[in-house]
Amino acid sequence: MKILVCVSKTPETTANINFTNNNTEFDTNGVSFIMNPYDEWYALVRALELTEANGGSVTIVNVGPSINDAVIKKGLAIGAKDAVRIDAEPTSALFVAKQIAAYAKSEAYDIIFTGKESIDYNGSLVGGMIAELLDLPYISYASSMELAGSTATLQREIEGGTEVVQLDTPFVVSAAKGMAEQRIPNMRGIMMAKKKPLNVATAEAAQSNEKVVEFKEVPKDRAIKMINPEDMAELVRLLHEEAKAI
Amino acid sequence: MVLVFVDHNGGQFKKATFEVVTYGKKVADLLSCECAALVLGAVDNAGILGQYGANRVINVSNDNLTNFDSQTYTSAIAQVAEKIGAKVVIVGHNSTGKSIVGRLAAKMDAAVISGAKAVPTNDNGFVVEKNVFSGKGIASYLLDTDIKIISLMGNSIQPEVTGTDASPEAMELSINPPKVRVIERKTISGIVPLPEAEMVVSAGRGMGAPDKWGIIEELAEILGATTACSRPVADTGWRPHHEHVGQTGVAIRPNLYFAIGISGAIQHLAGVSSSKVIVVINKDPEAPFFKNADYGVVGDLFEVVPALNAALKDFKANNN
After folding, report:
1. Distances (CA, A) of A103 to A87, B113, B224
2. Hey, which residues 163-182 in chain B have their CB within 8 Å of chain A?
């Protein structure tokens, strides 16, 4: 079983988000970066569990500059066999998907994993794009996945419930909470990661169809009104008459 | 032409459906063109979409489209888009839409914005806003191709009735058999899913123990709200994972959000800050959530919430 896990680099979850260059760029000053939590906690760990149970190997792929190597190495420390970094600025979801699809085309992966979305641009796009470019089925927001031979049974989150689906490999899946539990790399893993291959591939020519022209901060115009805890009738009155929320 | 793909649940439309059609009508007005709505599968009242601004309602029935598969649905939407010459294709940013929006953009090599939260502007190119950094920022995207793909975040606009029923037209498409087999579909009836909920009652570690949620459920029931929780509460198994709202959970944008016994960590705020009105109840006056709320109550939640429930019951009794 050959599994590819697509990972992206994102600001850490507690980062304060600021913008620069006349609000046209994300200000990375003072921001620490991590592997996108959905890619790491759910996609990568479930991929590793599947190969531990069924045999096979997990490869990590990332599209980005060399500064991303630290994030990729964490994935190797958690247990991936090797990694590929496609050397290009990830300028749009479709640009990234085209790079990964071009790489994956000749490798015949049984399963390609992504996280359900990245916590920076929240696009939830790359998995579906890779699937379309490779003409593969795609299951999004999977919260569990079991494998019997080449048939996978997945549960996916839908509005107010769940859907259970079955399909045969190869396919693309995006992993959501529930798929696996976070793994902390141990010292042995970190030492072994140093010897694992991190290959660098040249990017394909591709353009980006959209771009961010302006960032804005979320308006913080909430002026709090404190209510006496003994007077909940007053809160109800305000919610009805002032906020018109009930 | 603007093409809106609308989702339905076993033949039933939801409010989100009408939001997407209303949005499509506004985009069509912006571009001075017509709006077509596409329904896949059997729906009795597809014509109703005309009321929300669809000039045409296209209803495709095909055995290979009975169950949802992102591949067959993408193929169907792309075929219809081509047949009618659609310049903008719009889907809802729900579990169906999220599965197809990327596929559509790749298939049509089109510019895409997923999770749009406002009607586009067309003054300096076609520009659309969405939340980024899990609700910590807003970005305006310029979509720079002839054909554009948009998925619309729920609760971004209100449905507006502007027209009359349309008469659905059939269209023949060639669709390959789906590779995905749907085994089971379970929805909890009677509960509005969190991403669509207009009122949400959420509680956190301040509850102390999982068996104390009765007062929270009672508050939700009085309001007709959906219950939610903070991440630590879901992680310790006090509440199910699907109730977790925040940066790594479900992002919500209700009209009214109650945060009870939740301190307001930045990751939690990121997922709920799009709520219109926020009420925070916490015994700690220094809880960061008070800086991001409209109404605050400092007090013991086990006294405040039952009192609130009683006051709400009085209010409901006098206003019904």
Report:
1. 12, 25, 50
2. 179-182
Residue B91, pLDDT score: 98
Joined tokens for residue A46: 């479930």
What's B153's domain CATH number?
3.40.50.620
B221 near A CB under 8 A? no
- Last residue of a domain, which of B170, B205, B227? B170
**Which chain B residue shows the shortest CA-CA distance from A243?**
B277
Specify the CATH number for the domain of residue B313: 3.40.50.1220
Span B209-223, pLDDT tens digits: 999 999 999 999 999
Among the partner residues B134, B277, B312, nearest to A122 by beta-carbon distance:
B134
- Interface predicted TM-score (ipTM): 0.94
Tell me which chain A residue has its CA closest to the CA of residue B114: A123
B310 and B257 assigned to the same domain: yes
pLDDT tens readout for residues A191-231: 999 999 999 999 999 999 999 999 998 877 789 999 999 99
Give the domain extent around B24: 2-170
Q: Which residues contact B149 (CB under 8 A, 6 or more apart)?
A: B88, B89, B90, B91, B101, B104, B105, B108, B110, B111, B112, B113
pLDDT tops 80 at residue B189:
no
Q: Are residues B147 and B204 in the same domain?
A: no
Rounded CA separation A89/B213 (Å): 48
Q: Is some CB atom of chain B closer than 8 A to the CB atom of A233?
A: yes
**pLDDT greater at residue B42 or residue A124:** A124
**Which residue pairs, CB below 8 angstroms and at least 24 apart, start in B276-285?**
B276/A245, B277/A239, B277/A243, B277/A245, B278/A222, B279/A235, B279/A239, B280/A224, B281/B305, B281/B308, B282/B206, B283/B206
Q: Tens digit of pLDDT for each residue in B220-259?
A: 999 999 999 999 999 999 998 889 998 888 889 999 999 9
Q: Which of B190 and A34 is assigned the larger pLDDT?
A: A34
Interface contact B97, partner A, CB < 8 A: no
Best of B6, B99, B268, B286 to mutate (most A CBs within 10 Å, chain A): B99
Most A CBs within 10 Å, among B72, B134, B223, B290, to test the A interface: B134
Closest CA in chain B for residue A10: B133
**Nearest beta carbon to residue A140 from set B98, B130, B308:** B98
Cβ–Cβ below 8 Å for A235 and B103: no
CATH class of the domain at A2-216: alpha beta
> In the predicted model, what is the mean pLDDT of residues B26-46?
96
Q: What total number of domains does chain B contain?
A: 2
Instruction: Identify all chain B residues contacting A204, using CB atoms and an 8 Å cutoff.
Output: none
pTM for the structure as a whole: 0.91
